[in-house]
Amino acid sequence: VAERKVFVQLTGEVGTGKTIMLDALVHGLDATTKVARITNTTISRMDLLRALAWELGLPGTGRTKMEMLREVSDCLTRWAADGRNAVFVIDEAQNLEAPILEEIRLLSNLRSLERSTLQIVLAGQPELRTKLEGPELRQLRQRIGIRYHLEPLSLDETGEYVRHRLRVAGAKDDRVFDASAIDAVYEYSRGIPRMVNMICDNSLCICASS
Question: Is the whole-model pTM more than 0.85?
Answer without folding.
Answer: yes
